[in-house]
Amino acid sequence: MPTTRKATTIWEGTLFEGAGKVTLESSGLGTYDVSWPSRAEEANGRTSPEELIAAAHSSCFSMAFSNGLAKNDTPATSLTTTADVEFTPGTGITGIKLTVRGVVEGIDNDTFVQLATAAKEGCPVSQALAGTTITLDAALA
Questions:
Q1: Using one digit for the tens of pLDDT, what is the confidence trace for 105-135?
Q2: Which residues contact 84 (CB under 8 A, 6 or more apart)?
Q3: What is the Cα–Cα distance from 130 to 27, expressed in whole angstroms?
Q4: For the segment 64-77, what is each residue's pLDDT rounded down to a tens digit?
Q5: What are the angstrom distances between the C-alpha of 73 and each of 37, 105, 133?
């Protein structure tokens, strides 16, 4: 059965001088300030679409990878995943780098990397971002 998650942004003003607030409605976790300077320059306590994509991608990948490791009979003790989303004004998102370090018993690094690559390709967020260059740096901790 499908699920739907919802976020709403209220934006006031122009792109460069205006600002907005994005509310995570499904979870009720909060409302976050967003602006062009927080996207193209320094965050200054505000978020950006790219940071939200990074959060979605790192968590989705971690879930997919955790599942792949469990199916391999080598469940992870822990996985630490970072997603770096690169944004170039005037061009858009130019790349995403996933970095994962894992503590996994009974697995060699080559198998870890192989399963991480499969998770990157199978992750629904990776699939939604098809057309974007997504690189992976995976290693046992």
A1: 999 999 999 999 999 999 999 999 999 999 9
A2: 54, 96, 97, 99
A3: 26
A4: 999 999 999 999 99
A5: 46, 10, 30
The CA dihedral of 7, 19, 55, 124, to the nearest 10 degrees, is 50
Structure tokens at 29: 């976790």
Pairing of the two strands 30-35 and 76-88:
unpaired
Question: Is the separation of the CB atoms in 18 and 35 below 8 Å?
Answer: yes
Count the alpha carbons within 13 Å of 139 in the hemisphere toward its beta carbon: 2
Q: Give me the pLDDT at residue 108, please.
A: 97
Render pLDDT for 17-56 as a digit per residue (tens, 0 to 9).
999 999 999 999 999 999 999 999 999 999 999 999 999 9
Residue 90 DSSP symbol = T
